[in-house]
Design brief:
By secondary structure, the protein is of the alpha/beta class. The chain has two domains: about 140 residues, NAD(P)-binding Rossmann-like Domain (Rossmann fold), CATH 3.40.50.720; about 160 residues, Dihydrodipicolinate Reductase, domain 2 (2-Layer Sandwich), CATH 3.30.360. A nine-stranded mixed β-sheet has the order 14-13-12-11-7-10-9-8-15. Strands 3-2-1-4-5-6 form a six-stranded parallel β-sheet, with helices on both faces. Bound molecules: nicotinamide-adenine-dinucleotide (NAD). Nicotinamide-adenine-dinucleotide (NAD) binds next to helix 1. Keywords: Oxidoreductase. This is Dehydrogenase.
Length: about 350
């Protein structure tokens, strides 16, 4: 039994990663396409064998409710459109997989969770790192205290962008700049590997005056998160540097480093651990997977076996609450406490 997916939005992520990944899935398959471009729809449908009757525009999107081959609607649109398409999608009675960041604001996330609950459909946020083997291994090392208690985390996700007209540089469509787009990986991965929630954050934000890329959204955000037990995570994200994406955890008896931590592939994981006063270094050989396929098969499994997803809507909401606190701190110059009260129970 393979669960049928309608992919909404045929941009880079859908065309280069998600649709090809669906062909490799064990429990998921491509069932329908939604796009604003009839030419693109026709071309992609032909390439992947989707029937013309399973191709929809944004106007006919709601007709997905009448397509019995579609079980899941996967929203891969600009962030500012996620809420509208999740709300309309929930009304079709199909389950919803929504790209990250879940929305533009925490208030929007709450509406999306409520709409899916009212419709009785499952909602998952596409946090592919939860299904990436190196990051999962790191979670295991931390939670089993292989390197003693975790003391400090250093996480960074930076890249450059060049087109000020792209939706990622428009506040209404992107919600923010580097933080919700790529900094979110540092934030969500830290919560994922620690299995803990930050109690306080402090942020520092900057945008170069006069740079048209950053008139509406931030160029850089640097922030700290404090966790119980005195664990501090030092995170950074930038939209105007050469690519750099790493994750590093320092424990009492050693460290673990993942290079390319949030990339689609090419993760390299190393470990340093103490033997007396000597540090032994080890490269961990962990086979790669297709994160997108693993993520979709996880959601399909939740649907087939009626289970709660691991990456819940509440998980996405919590990230937005924390990001809003980081922005507030950057604005006021003061640390901001977090006590969201969100129910963060997950599926297995
Ligand atoms: P993209 O710009 O390549 O594609 C966006 C698509 O939305 C395009 O096909 C565009 O035509 C369509 N669209 C519909 N209405 C639009 C409007 N009003 N303005 C602009 N575009 C409109 O973007 P993308 O990189 O594919 O990102 C899509 C979503 O996926 C975003 O939420 C992004 O954060 C997320 N994403 C996730 C990952 C990941 O690794 N999980 C990676 C990249 C992007």
């Amino acid at each position: 039994q393979r669960v049928g997916y309608a992919v909404v939005g045929l941009g880079h992520l859908s065309l280069e990663e998600i649709i090809p990944a669906l062909a490799t899935c064990k429990k998921s398959k491509l069932a329908a396409l939604v796009s604003g471009s009839p030419e693109k729809l026709k071309k992609v449908a032909l390439q992947y064998g989707v029937k013309p009757s399973s191709c929809y525009s944004y106007q006919t999107y709601d007709d997905l409710k009448n397509n019995p081959e579609v079980d899941v609607i996967y929203i891969v649109l600009p962030n500012g459109l996620h809420k509208e398409y999740v709300l309309r999608g929930a009304k079709t009675g199909k389950h919803i997989l929504c790209e990250k960041p879940m929305a533009n604001t925490a208030a929007e996330c709450r509406e999306m969770i409520a709409a899916c609950n009212t419709a009785g459909v499952k909602l998952m946020v596409a946090y592919r790192i939860h299904y990436q083997p190196h990051n999962r291994k790191l979670r295991e090392i931390i939670q089993q205290k292989e390197l003693g208690n975790t003391k400090f985390i250093d996480a960074s996700n930076c890249q450059s962008s060049a087109n000020p007209d792209h939706w990622r540089h428009k506040k209404a469509l992107a919600g923010g700049g580097a933080l919700p787009d790529i900094g979110l990986y540092c934030l969500n991965t830290t919560r994922f590997v620690l299995g803990m929630e930050p109690t306080e954050v402090f942020g520092y934000q900057y945008s170069t005056p006069g740079n048209p890329l950053f008139t509406e959204v931030e160029e850089v955000m640097s922030w700290q998160m404090k966790f119980d037990g005195g664990i501090i995570a030092n995170c950074s994200t930038h939209y105007n540097t050469h690519d750099s994406r790493y994750y590093r955890v320092l424990g009492e008896k050693g460290w673990v480093h993942i290079e390319n931590a949030y990339a689609y592939k090419g993760q390299q994981m190393s470990k340093g651990y103490a033997e007396g006063k000597i540090t032994n270094r080890q490269t961990l050989q962990i086979p790669e997977n297709n994160q997108f396929a693993a993520e979709m098969d996880h959601f399909s499994d939740c649907i087939i076996n009626n289970k709660k997803p691991f990456s819940t809507g509440e998980d996405g909401l919590q990230d937005h609450i924390i990001m809003e606190a980081i922005y507030e701190s950057a604005k006021t110059g003061r640390p901001v406490k977090i006590n969201s009260g969100v129910n963060l129970s997950r599926g297995p």
